[in-house]
UniProtKB/TrEMBL annotation:
Similarity field: Belongs to the diphosphomevalonate decarboxylase family.
Annotated GO MF terms: diphosphomevalonate decarboxylase activity
Pfam family, one: MVD-like_N
Record EC number: 4.1.1.33
Organism in which the protein naturally occurs: Oceanobacillus luteolus
Domain spans labelled Mvd1 C-terminal: 182-306
Name of the protein described by the UniProt record: diphosphomevalonate decarboxylase
Highest taxon of the lineage: Bacteria
Domain Diphosphomevalonate decarboxylase-like N-terminal: 7-165
Length: 325
């Protein structure tokens, strides 16, 4: 009863930023992402009859505390589905995701865990079923089941049965690149979970954010299908700025940006003035991700590395969906 799976992380171009149901992880809006090639998690799950509890190891180190609880609570869902509630597992994960880079390792982590654990326990799930299930571990992981561009449909039902990701275009559709601009390895003060909750509950801008999503989504899907990089970048950058504006209006207000975040944003806008098409997006942390086309890779990397406060620049192509090893 052992299986190994690999899942890549994804970066949202239309952000998920709020839940309507915290327990089932049901979002307030659809989101859309690009799965990345360079960053992934490989997880082996081994259910063993003689174990009295789960054991979880990340990059060779045993994990305890909150992270352990999140994994075992998630395995409980899978045990219940398989009707094997007294069966525990050894879980070994390896992150090929620089945690410091702000590349969400929870997306690749839960997607790989879901695929490996369901296979190991004898469930044979479709991609839709995997996406719906892994969503309950971490919302953004629902999109990591697919390669390339994927959309997480929020669904309407309160049991979450229609809330899962769907593929929009595979990793072979269009070679757009993403640079992860690393600024700091300090842990953030407000987790994305806490940040989105405070924003939903208190930000007067939240309603405006939600209203703007359907138009952003339909425009970005058209840009992907037409391979219109300018449109793609403009929509993604504006959507990111709107998301971060909601947190600035929360009570108490907060931002994930630091001084160098703004310097990189300005540098990206300056690149465009110099004729280099590049756009940024930022998640629940200070680091910046920059979208660019392959022919500008050298210039984009060189310019980003020169910005004061930048400690690393990590380049990636579109990546594949979840796979079994
Ligand atoms: C996203 N983020 O769409 C957005 C943009 C952060 C900013 O998904 O509570 O770790 O586990 O569902 O998936 C980060 O949130 O949150 C996230 P939970 P998750 O990528």
């Amino acid at each position: 009863m052992k299986a190994t799976a690999k899942a890549h992380t994804n970066i949202a171009l239309i952000k998920y930023w709020g839940k309507r149901n915290d327990e089932l992880i049901l979002p307030t809006n659809n989101s859309l992402s690009l799965t990345l090639d360079g960053f992934y998690t490989t997880t082996t799950v081994d259910f063993q009859e003689d174990l009295k509890e789960d054991y979880f190891e990340l990059d060779g180190e045993p994990v305890m505390g909150e992270a352990y609880k999140r994994v075992t609570a998630f395995l409980d869902l899978i045990r219940r589905m398989a009707d094997k509630e007294d069966l525990f597992a050894r879980v070994k994960s390896y992150n090929q995701v620089p945690t410091a880079a702000g590349f969400a390792s929870s997306a690749s982590g839960f997607a790989a865990l879901t695929a490996a654990a369901t296979k190991a326990i004898g469930l044979d799930l479709s991609d839709t079923e995997l996406s719906r299930l892994t969503r309950q571990g971490s919302g953004s992981s629902s999109r990591s089941i697919y390669g390339g561009f994927a959309e997480w449909e929020m669904g309407e039902k309160e049991d979450g049965s229609d809330s899962y990701a769907v593929p929009i275009a595979s990793e072979n559709h269009w070679d757009v690149r993403m640079a992860g601009v690393v600024l700091t390895s300090k842990m953030k003060k407000i987790s994305s979970r806490a940040g989105m909750r405070r924003t939903v509950e208190t930000s007067p801008f939240y309603e405006g954010w939600l209203k703007s999503i359907p138009e952003d989504l339909s425009q970005i899907k058209k840009a992907i299908s037409d391979k219109d990089f300018t449109r793609l970048g403009e929509i993604a950058e504006a959507n990111c700025l709107k998301m971060h504006a909601t947190s600035l209006a929360a009570k108490p207000p907060f931002t994930y940006w630091i001084d160098s975040t703004i310097r990189v944003m300005q540098q990206v806008q300056e690149m465009r003035e110099q004729g280099i098409p590049a756009y940024f997006t930022i998640d629940a942390g200070p680091n910046v991700k920059v979208l660019y086309l392959p022919e500008y890779e050298e210039q984009v990397e060189r310019i980003l590395r020169e910005v004061p406060g930048v400690t690393d620049v990590i380049l990636s192509k579109p990546g594949p969906g979840v796979s079994y090893l």
